[in-house]
Amino acid sequence: MRNSADLASALLVLLAVFIPSAAMGEDTPTPDPWDERAISAPLERGDYSGTLTREKLDELTAIGERLFEARFTTLDGVGRPMATQAIIPTKRRRETRLEFQRMAGMDAASCASCHNDPVSGGAGDFVANVFVSEGFSNADFDSIDPQFSNERNTNHLFGAGLIELLAREMTVELQATREEAARQARAKGETVTLPLQAKGVSFGSITVEADGMVDLSGLDGVDTDLVIRPFSQKGVMTSLRQFTVNALNQHHGMEAVERFGARWTGEIDFDQDGKGDEISPGDVSAMVAWQATLEPPVAATPDDERWREASATGDALFDTIGCSSCHIRALPLSSLEFADPGPVDAAGTLRGDEDGDVAIYDLGLYDWAARLERNDKGEVMVPLFGDLKRHRIADQKVAILGNELLAQRFVDRDVFMTGELWGIADTAPYGHRGDLTTLDEIIRAHGGEGSQAARAYEALPESDRTALIAFLKTLEVGR
Ligand code: HEC
Ligand code: HEC
Predict the structure, then answer these.
(1) 62, 192, 237, 290: which could join 231 in a potential S-S bond, CB 3.0 to 4.6 Å?
(2) 435 alpha carbon to ligand 2 midpoint, in Å?
């Protein structure tokens, strides 16, 4: 009797402590306006699984937008005194003296601190550049010397969901060709070489010998696993989810449970900042949902008649001098259903097939999707002005874009993914380092595989060069 009475009064005390704080917003993902936290309770993914209605999607993306713009604090888990910015959870050799510093990071309070031009989710000025380094051994570099990191300018995220969907479909196409080559080689008992194409973009060829040995020496502009990695200007990041988990750690010391939590590292507080389980899979999902559903840029039709005329001339030149061989105007997309977690991520980023809680965001629910053109097969034409392929873009004569010293993930220093030009009118400065102030300069900076087109541009009369730029200036973000 006495014991249960004790228990009851203990429970009352507990309730007295917890009820008021619940009323303060303890249990809702959205903190009170005066709360110094960005996250007051982890978001449950279960509430947002399966195919989401537009209403549910709006709820989730609103949370994602808030997190993208939130200035994370130490109360949320900012700080990684004993972990580096590396993608694979890596301990520092010794505790850092400077927790915030512009080079190896942490370097910002929020995602939108860099991605804000012309609006949140946008690109960034030179001042928002990031010093990208895998950071395994020299995690504590505090120099902008290019021997420690590759300096990159911030790109915009509009239409990012469509880009990832294109990449996923292209991956399926390339991997199916590998299977087909293997099948034919086995059936015929001889070596088979097949061209590797996805959505009309050529990625070289693949050869399979009769015994099943695969020869990848014919690959061009894609990784050996034939996964198209559409993110980062290097074309080495697979998904918005992977990028978000990387960025949260690099810029903010916010360690996502799905990568830095007990499952992979065996530790709750891997970065040893005194806070464990810093950002939940649900919160990462909300951030991904917001990015994946961002409206794609659409080309503007200028009111100014002179601009309209010049732009029409430039539009045609864009094809005739060969720009559109890499900056392909639009690629066809079969399905607008964005699954998160996605199908191809590596360990440390949740993946759909090992995860019960897959959510489907139907981009077709958005008004902007109806405005995108469709081809005769009913596929949505995504007007990205890119090919999601990597190219050598510098040579000895034109070396401006060959300015990095570190290879990233086995990709040569002077090889980059074709920049997507949708939105280019609103995202100066240009080039992967953001150190070129005009479109004329970045066009002239193309060397390597882009040399022929760039030299053709240089050979044009000035009025035609201006017309080409007048065309590029219609490729607005559209907000
Ligand atoms: C300090 C500036 C900065 C901050 C803060 C920042 N980013 Fe970025 N972001 C960049 C830069 C620079 C790139 C280009 C990286 C490259 O090309 O290697 C980029 C690229 C990206 C990309 C790939 C876009 C593409 O098309 O290739 C995504 C996605 C992204 N950021 C998401 C985020 C998220 C989510 C956050 C917050 C957790 C964030 N970023 C915070 C600077 C920043
Ligand atoms: C061989 C493929 C290829 C061809 C052809 C090509 N480009 Fe590019 N383009 C690229 C790559 C790769 C980049 C990324 C360069 C970098 O790393 O900064 C790029 C970047 C750009 C950018 C800057 C994007 C940004 O966000 O800063 C512009 C503008 C551009 N190209 C316009 C053109 C024009 C105009 C032509 C025709 C004269 C052309 N390109 C021909 C591959 C190509």
Answers:
(1) 237
(2) 14
